[in-house]
Amino acid sequence: MKDQCTILADVSGDAPSASPRSAARRAELALIDDVSRVTKVLEPSDAHLEFCDGDVDYDNLEECLDEFWKTFRTSTAIPPAVIIKAQTGLGKTTTTIGSVSKAIRNGEIGGTVLHIVTDHKNMKEAQILYQKNGVFPTLLKGMTASGCKFKTQVEERYKFGLSARSLCLSDENGEEKKCPFYDDCGYIRTRQSIAKSSDLNVIICSAEYLRCGGIPEEVNPALIIVDESFSDKLVFEGYVKASEFGLVWANDQKSWASNRLRQMVNEILVLTMDRKPVVKELIEKHGLQGLKRELGSIINFRTKEKRAIAQGSAKQNSLVTQGAMRNEMMLWESILTEVNEEIEQEAGSDKPKSTGALHIIRSETGDRLDISRRTRFPYPSTPVLGLDATADAEIYGGVMNDTHDLRVASIKSKANNMFITAIFGQSWASDSLKVKTDNQYEDNGRLRSRAEEANKRCEKLAAFLSVVLKKEGDRKILICCTKANKKVLLEDLSIKDKLAAPNIQIENFGGLKGRNDFKNFDTNITIGKLELPDQSVARMARAYKGHDEAVTLVGGATGRERKVREYSTYSDQIAKAPSFEYKDDVMKRIQYQFRELEIVQSLGRLRAVNRPEADLRSYLLTDAIPESLVLDNAYHIDDFTKTSPLEELANEYDNIVSVAAYSQHRGVRNNAATEFFKAHGFTANICPEGWALVKSRVSGQRGAATKLYIPTPALKMMEDDGTLEATIQKHLFHLGKLDSERTPITVTT
Predict the structure, then answer these.
(1) Which helix (H) or strand (E) holds 578?
(2) Who has the most CB within 10 Å: 18, 465, 521, 607?
(3) How would you list the strands of the sheet with 368-374, edge to edge?
(4) Is 196 helix (H, G, I), strand (E, B) or coil?
(5) What's the rounded Cα separation, in Å, for the pair 257 and 262?
(6) H helices within 483-636, ranges in order?
(7) Helix (H, G, I), strand (E, B), or coil: what is residue 711?
(8) Residue 125, strand partner residues
(9) What pLDDT digit, counting tens, does each position of 643-695 carry?
(10) Which residues pair with 651 in a beta bridge?
């Protein structure tokens, strides 16, 4: 690995300043202590793994939005869908809300705008932005988020895949049953106001509702805005164990309907064993209407079973989990959806037929049915404006080309001053830092311990973070990692106390989209990556393929292959590092969307594009760096954490180094110590970048002052807390230059 990573700067130096990226500065950064640690400069390569290029490039967001409104005003049979790809921090949300608010005030939008965001926190932020523009939106929260009195029952029904709305109002044996808190419920009042008010300007809701159907039928938008990636919300994937498929979930629910269930299960198992397209074969055997009746009976039977279990009137089969129930219902309902679409097409419906694929494929071992389904966008006649920092045109096309005239538009990147350092050499997967059992395994005739290796990785991670924290001082630091690694940082790492400092905040992947909490932070540290299981990625990829192609993904095509990826640097060098990528192109795209997207989100939280004068730094300790990103420095982690003689000296002498200190510490003569400092750029009154010269002499004495060298961040801290003079007194006393630590001295900086 070391011979595949170009080292671009001296790791013993401090973090760079925020000065402009100039040729002179790049030349300074290229200076290093030990030339033996530099690998050869590699030729640039155009073989970049990048899937996000749009159809059209725009110079700015306003220009792109102007083009969207022109398209929006044009009445066409197929509604437009424009997905805007622009880097985080560019103001996509703020600018878009301003543009939409203006269109609302001018009466250009003949109806309600449905604005879909990532979570409830972002709902509130979007609401404030609309209010600043004179528009007052309605927040559509789910039942539990609206303060439902039966939150436990709602969550229990969700686990079983049941709709919880029947808890609000239901019809049992011809008698209406209403929740006792119905009239005062915030969720019900919101739905009632939406149904009564046809002139609502904006409704804001969570993107999760695209997946679970939580958007009420009362919502009939004229325009939909989706903030951040939403394509994954329209792809369903899961599996059902073949041995549990069709088991009666509640033992006391056996009936004539269970016979139909068993018959249909047997047919599906046979078809999947032969790798045949299940829905097509079932339609040919039963006919459309006959298959619809069979599926209706099975779904009704299964729904009654789940309701009985959720209400406690029936006992759940101990062999079947709630997740298995949900997945099996997804299978039956997906087949029914396909059948209903075929019936509509036979009846001459002008509704576009979805090319979204449903695949039910048996695994190679035969013990599992993999289910993958790509559903159509739920509003096929409504224009869509999407905002996504890492938009992939092909993936969005897979879920929207059925219903919309799709275009992915890119905004040209805006330069930012964030200094980005990449550290390669370890993937930092969550399970590599903490293992549950001390399993041993043999590798090339040597017995190795997983627990021991995990401890060594933790030590290496602690060493890396110690170096960074020392360089960054009291700057505000955002650390982003997986939930499992966050737990390791806070509970298991040897420096966990340092990581609990008030200037450090640790967040997990998946929780940073759209957040503005960290726009005043100075440093970002990204550790590891968010990674989906291989089988999940394979099932999602199948949803974008025809049946024959999907079947091939059951076998060896799901594997990965080792690739050496190349990363550009501002000094026109190329840093190389290995990664493991999927062989299948669609799986590769999905992998990029999930893990590299989180890296982009992590970097964007500091809003570097809007802070041109700030000194912002980022350390990427991951092998999931987007290749479109240009790096400032690249290291192997062993080189980054390696301590130089200068750092050893500074650690030993309270962040102060001098010729006399080096002479004492190393046991060499003064002239040898002087030559060492000259070799590291300390000549006359000149210090290398990151260091400051301080002169000291005993008060009232004449003669040459003692030259001391202090790292710039450490000097600032000493000056801020008033400890500079005392620290120098202590340093000189230990060197025998003062009779006492309280001998008066004069300090010049």
Answers:
(1) strand 574-582
(2) 465
(3) 235-241, 368-374, 358-362
(4) helix
(5) 9
(6) 483-491, 496-499, 534-542, 547-552, 585-591, 597-604
(7) strand
(8) none
(9) 677 777 877 788 888 888 888 887 888 888 888 888 888 877 888 878 889 88
(10) none
